[in-house]
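DATA SHEET
Item: assembly model
Revision: 1
Owner: S.N.
Input lines:
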Amino acid sequence: MSNSATQMLVAAALEFLRRHPPFDRMEAEALHYLAERLKLAYYEKDAPIASPEMGVLRNFYLLQRGKVLVRGAGEVGLIDYTTMTLSPGECFPIGAVTAQRPSTNVYTALEDVFCYELAVEDYFAVMRMSPVFNLFCTQYIATLANQSRQQLQQEFAQRAAEQQTMNSPLSSIITKEAICASPETSLREVIGIMAASHIGSIIVVDAERRPAGIFTQSDVLKRVVLPGVPLESPIASVMSPDPHTLPMASSAYDAVLAMAMHGIRHVLVIDEGGRLKGVVSERDLFALQRVGLRQIRQSIETAPDIRLLCQAASDVRRLALNMLAQGVGAEQLTQFISALNDTLTRRVIQLNLDRHDLYGIDWAWLSFGSEGRDEQTFSTDQDNGLIFVCTDIMDREQTQLRLLDFARDINADLDRVGFPLCPGKIMAGNPEWCLTVEEWEEKFLGWVRTPEPKALLNASIFFDFRPLYGQFHLAHRLRLSLLKATQENRLFLRMMAQNALSVTPPLGKIRDFVTDADPAFHGTIDLKKYGARLFVDAARVFALAAGVGATNTAQRLRLTGAAQKVSSDESAGLVESLNFIQLLRLRHQNFELEQGRAGNNRIDPDELNELDRRILKEAFRQARKLQQRLKLDFQV
Amino acid sequence: MKNWLARLRGSGAAPAPVALSAVRAQTLADWQAAPPLDTRRSHYRTRYVVVDVEASGLDMKRDRLIAIGAVAVVNGRIDPADSFEVILRQEEVSTSDNILIHGIGGSAQREGTEPPDALLGFLHYCGHAPLVAYHALFDQTMIERAVREHLGVRLDACWIDLAWVLPDLFRERIDAQVMLDDWLALFDIDNIQRHNAVSDALATAMLLQAAMARATARGAKTPASFVDIEKARRWMRRSG
């Protein structure tokens, strides 16, 4: 029966719901259905609301007023470790109600609490009626993270020149049919087609339309005219074979990354059968963008001196900002920054190679820390080293001296380009970190065998190494011997785990977050130390234990998760959480840099909007889950 | 005067009979036959009806009852479906100052429900549930007077006044007779539309929920114990 009084009470519930996600975006009909069925209950301070002893719950709860304390049940000895608080607008327990199993947590009123209750039957009815609510419940955290990304996109929309979102699939970007030729077609014919259709490149495909190669306008000069190749020769003889391809489902971002990494201008899009579906050119992707990716790469790769490289370095940041504005996820963005920074570093190395004679030395430039993990943010200082081969022990000193000269010049140039010198002197120009393969191996093994605090700290920086220039196989050799050593050494892994657990997520019992006690940073959270690091450190231990060679944290989480039979949803949740924290860091750093300050990692949770605050809380909860797994696995 | 006061208290002589149509008489009889209240059941197995009225003024002798809003608290829960509101048709519209308070305009007053039907609807909604209000004397008097006038019967309900019960249960917070808004502020309860009878009743119902939880924790587990608390408190105030 609908009377005016009921309407008034439903209106009151609606008014509340509309102020909180996901209800603010829920379909009107479903929202109304929900509001009509919410019953309001009160709980006095310390009164239990839901707990495992209650068995399968008959109600779903939506906190209307006050705070609710959540404690993991049954984990004796871990009491402080697993508490958190919920604020008005939050729902619980989503997992238990959806799965129709008893709650694993104890929910208690922390103060006067008013809570809406929704009968389980009605909960499922709303799930069926509302795709928004359904998605919210089933993909709890992923959805929230996306919402925030969309918000971020809106925030930056005015500043962003680019219209196309970097997440759109390539299938939606390719518009024109690609013009193709068979491998036997003569050069004369091919050049004729290109001239007639005013195109800069042509794709060579086999009988099944599978791409075999690509031939571009600039090839005409370099590969045909200058070498004097007769125009009757088949195109196959001068084309660039094995062109770079991507499946239809790849995103624009994937194409950008491929272009950045391989220095190419075109990416061929293929279907499941490997058949050509179209071509995406750099121009398609960055048509409207002021700073072109290619321009940056080109200016980096051709920069004749350090002065011009500095300009390119600032362009990298601007481009990254553009991508941030387009809603590119943190994982891709940090990888992207790393890729361009790699290019920058490589150019610095190249420029210095011209001035240093390293003939006869096998060496590789290594990066450590965040660069080694492909996780650079806007403000990153140097962490690098050199690895080299020394066949004759008598030559060692001499070889190292030559390399050190070279490395010091590079370190100084990198500093000028915008990568400040490492305050801890972790740089290739430091003799301590310019070592032969055997010396590196010995150092690493020493840290693994004797995991005293200093060794553990070093492990957390150096074990994330990645080769950047030179003989990459030297780095691979080092990786293999390291993984062999760590996999066999439980004690070391346990100590690493313990180290990773020394910092806990800043979730408060009463307040949402625990902020810094230091008066200089009052009310802030260091999202590097108390955010990203929680994931990075745990992922490293899992990777070293499982023999996973990847250094990137998201990859480590996915790969080790799969090896440990952790559900892919759970791994995805962890990666989303890490990405969200990284996104906040990037956003904050960008803001700080715009204000002319050195980018730090301190955010004030009170300044976040409600949605971001809630996702951040959820991200910290995920970090806690990850830490618990670490605890269990290594019996810390 | 004395006769009037006695009637106010609901303990005077039987009210003058009113001639009712057959349908109305039947509805009234049904209400009278509804299950009686058991004040010894626990709060959480009781249906409370929280009431708030709007009138043409604050004079309990002369002002007329304009609207009744009610929200039930059943087994400790507020269910929007179990709520009630009625506007009583007025021969004479209240003053514009008065309208500004409750927002029930002239035409709404003239187009309201015929008072006997409005009151029968209310009685049917309540059954014999204990009635709860804040500063209940006003609500009780206005409703009892209207029932007497229009239906010719005495409403002999169990009334509970939260203005007396709350300060006893939450002495650590407010140990005095205060306004409703003070309690709402204390419990951080929003009143979406102050002086709308239903909205006021909802806010008061939330206070009742808090009172039930606290009283239960103290061993005062039934409607009867609320009545006892109120009596003791009134007595204490009078003698202290």
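QC remark: DSSP finds 23 helices and 21 strands in chain A.
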